[in-house]
């Protein structure tokens, strides 16, 4: 079977793919353009796409009788794929849940600590040669221990963040989620996002991207937050209305933000770049070799199951 891998992946993943499939690895690190997306559906049996490969409904419309029957997405988030449109023309979609959980929770903790403890600001001070030595009131941040954390989306990653915050930092946990979750740690479910925003010192976003969560965090939510509170986003950029976040930061409605993802990625607004109170990471959530290997091997497992006619391990 012909398999297209749309970006360079770790060697172990490519070796596994080549051992089982007639594999083509696209060697560009940028997302496929529309012509490539269309061609991928007509030229390959299986495509292993990832973030930014925008399989929207009109791409599927352009190939009514596709050769491709599986999009084995590399990543748990698949908001770049219109899965309903894919299914309507007989293309299955799978993802890589679980493989990404701990690494992404770690980046959430990194952003919480960097933003609350002003680590980026401090590092820039040292690198600029402007540090004049320790003194008792320099760069005072927010102490995380014992504070209240609000988690929006108590799924796999939300729970991994909660475990770290509860066991590592003694934080009080509150969350907003569609369903209620049986949890192995104390956490209060809050019925409205606006109420959760009002009750916490740090608000972390861990919901999937997509139409339902688009601009879920806007001026109305941000205006409810405490002025000393920080917002952290490791989910998808467009869950936050970025203009509203910039306005909230500019007027001091919240004290800072830690962002791994952006509304118009990879464009990061100059207004955010210019703010000392904001920590900006380049979508590092799963960026560790073992994690990217595990994600790739999970995607290949889905492709292998498809090739054997077996049940897909991770359908979306
Ligand atoms: P998950 O296990 O499916 O968890 C998502 C949680 O969000 C679920 O508990 C779900 O509740 C809740 N939710 C969904 N829609 C909601 C809504 N409209 N309102 C309130 N709660 C809602 O997914 P995950 O594995 O934790 O991953 C979460 C997302 O993180 C991914 O979809 C991806 O976009 C992002 N991510 C980012 C990175 C990165 O590099 N920064 C890495 C990995 C993942 P129910 O259970 O009730 O549906």
Main beta-sheet annotation: 7 strands, parallel
Biggest sheet: strands side by side, in what order? 8-7-6-9-10-11-12
Structural class: alpha/beta
What is the overall pLDDT average? 98
The count of DSSP E runs of length 2 or more, i.e. the number of strands, is: 12
Number of helices: 12
Oligomer: single chain
Radius of gyration from the alpha-carbon trace, in angstroms:
21 Å
End-to-end Cα distance = 22 Å
Low-confidence stretches: none
Compressed to H and E, one letter per element, the order equals: EHEHEHEHEHHEHEEHEHEHEHEH
Task: Please indicate the percent range of residues in DSSP E strands (runs of 2 or more).
Answer: 5-15%
Principal-axes geometry comes out as: elongated
Structural notes for this entry:
It is built from 12 helices and 12 strands. The chain is of the alpha/beta class and 316 residues long. The strands form 2 sheets. Strands 8-7-6-9-10-11-12 form a 7-stranded parallel sheet, sandwiched between helices. A 5-stranded parallel sheet has the order 2-1-3-4-5, sandwiched between helices. The longest helix has 20 residues, at 289-308. The radius of gyration is 21 Å and the shape is elongated. The relative contact order is 0.14. The model has no long low-confidence stretch (mean pLDDT 98). Bound molecules: NADP nicotinamide-adenine-dinucleotide phosphate. NADP nicotinamide-adenine-dinucleotide phosphate (NAP) is lined by residues 76-77, 97, 100-101, 104, 153-158, 176-179, 206-209, 212-213, 234-236, 260-261, 283, 285-286. Residues 76-77, 97, 100-101, 104, 153-158, 176-179, 206-209, 212-213, 234-236, 260-261, 283, 285-286 line the site of NADP nicotinamide-adenine-dinucleotide phosphate.
